[in-house]
Amino acid sequence: MAWLERKEGWISRGEKTRRMVGERVYSVAQVAEMLAVSRNTIYKYLDNAIIPPDAWFRLPSGYIRIREAAVMRIKSGRI
Predict the structure, then answer these.
(1) Predicted pLDDT of residue 77
(2) How many CA atoms lie within 13 A of 72 on its CB side?
(3) Fewer C-beta neighbours within 10 Å, C or N terminus of the chain?
(4) Which residues have CB under 8 Å from 55's CB, separation 6+?
(5) Which domains does the chain have, with CATH numbers?
(6) What is the pTM of this model?
(7) Residue pLDDT, tens place only, 3-39
(8) With 70 as the cut, is the pLDDT of residue 1 above it?
(9) CA distance 54 to 72
(10) pLDDT in tens, 39-49
(11) In sequence order, what are the residues at sequence separation of 6 or more whose Cβ sits closer than 8 angstroms to the Cβ of residue 54?
(12) What value, to the nearest 5°, has the Cα angle with vertex 15 and ends 75 and 17?
């Protein structure tokens, strides 16, 4: 079945996301673990714009991804 063969130039969904974003992104759970807080705290940061709206995005599946730069700002205390 020719349609099942990998096409030249084809990229995986994860690889496509990384290329579109241009930088590393993390899930809510990953950020919570890195900052040693609960996932609910991260959701509060998103709701209260402690993590600004331009620093995160929602995937079509509904999951949230947070850009690495925002995580580093929080870790360094600049947010």
Answers:
(1) 81
(2) 6
(3) N
(4) 66, 67, 69, 70
(5) 22-76 (1.10.1660)
(6) 0.69
(7) 545 555 554 555 555 555 468 999 999 999 999 999 9
(8) no
(9) 15
(10) 999 999 999 99
(11) none
(12) 60
Cβ distance 29 to 39 under 8 Å? yes
The three-point CA angle 16-42-61 to 5° equals 35
Long-range CB contact pairs, 21-24, < 8 A, 24+: 21/65, 21/67, 23/67, 23/68, 23/69, 24/67, 24/68
Written as six digits, the tokens of 12 are 């995986």
Cβ contacts of 66 within 8 Å, gap of 6 or more: 25, 26, 27, 28, 31, 42, 51, 55, 56
CA 63 from chain centre, in angstroms, equals 9
